[in-house]
Amino acid sequence: MTPTLVRHHRQADASASVDPGTRARDWAEIQERMLAPLYEAVYERLEIGAATRMLSLGCGSGLALLMAAARAAHVTGVDTDRERLALARERLLPDPGPERTRDGLPVLLDGDPSAAARPEGPPYNLLTVFTPIGCSAGDSEGLKPELESAVPLVARGSSVVLTGWGPPERCATAAVLRVATRLGDGVRAPRAGGWRPARRDDLEEVAFRVGLNPNGSGRVACPFGYADMDSAVRGLLSTRLFDAAVRATDRSQVEKEVAEALHPHRRRDGTVWMPNVFRYLVCTTP
């Protein structure tokens, strides 16, 4: 589904046969909200508030940051997707001006995690990765260098949150995402799109590779609901999980086959509804 992580963006956009700005807006207006229950569950568990200094990797169009800021957290988001980041600025920075401020406004940075280094002031005490891993080819392996760059920016003993898809049998969208695998066979490469079933220990394996200490986990229901079939197709294609399929065939063919796969989930009123479960893993830095 959703999202892929921090370093995936520009190459994928160039090959997906759709205007990057349009796809970013589809993500922000249609798809991103499907993960709001996941964000809320994490914030409730960690009691996010005014004492929180959060660094979010792959912050995208900023919904998770907005929800944390509503709890009075101090938030910094990093991403390399300029189109999604521009939408985050519209949401979080209402007035034009320097991105780095001294009055508690969110900080939004274009680049890798090193862009978020804080030479002055206290370090971050929460690191989040809200792009769910465990469904895109190579996504868990690709996350390792991002985390290795970001973890030193976080205070010792702080929380790191990793998120991923739940078991395929608990995710109705898995059947639709298999279209990406079938159409994209032969052209997929790590971090280039394409779906694969989530594994039970995806998050724990990432934590182990980076030297993080797992400290609890949870599952959250995140149903995907759309007003109509067109919104469902646009929302799912905005996740980039179908990029390899688009390159192997063409966007029209992918849209047609995704719509066919969505047909069993279409209700009598024309809406589309798919129950899903996502996981989160809370770790601490060594």
Could you characterize the architecture of this molecule?
Residues 55-92 form the Methyltransferase type domain. Residues 1-10 have a biased composition (Basic residues). The protein has 286 residues and is of the alpha/beta class. It has one domain: Vaccinia Virus protein VP39 (Rossmann fold, 3-Layer(aba) Sandwich), CATH 3.40.50. Helices cover 38% and strands 21% of the residues. It has eleven helices and nine strands. It has helices at 9-15, 20-31, 36-46, 63-69, 82-92, 139-150, 173-184, 202-210, 229-237, 243-248, 251-262, and strands spanning 53-57, 74-79, 107-110, 124-133, 154-165, 213-221, 224-226, 272-274, 277-284. The strands form two sheets. The chain has a seven-stranded mixed β-sheet, with helices on both faces. A two-stranded antiparallel sheet has the order 7-8. Helix 4 (63-69) links the parallel strand 1 and strand 2. The radius of gyration is 18 Å and the shape is globular.
